[in-house]
Amino acid sequence: MTHTKTPPRVIRPEDAHFVPRAQDGDMAQLAEICGTRDGTELGAGYARLTNARINWTVKYDEVLVVVEGKVRVHTKHGVLEAGPRDTVWLPEGTELTYEAENALIVWAIHPADWAERA
Question: Which DSSP string do the residues of 71-109 spell out, in sequence order?
Answer without folding.
Answer: EEEEETTEEEEE-TT-EEEE-TT-EEEEEEEEEEEEEEE
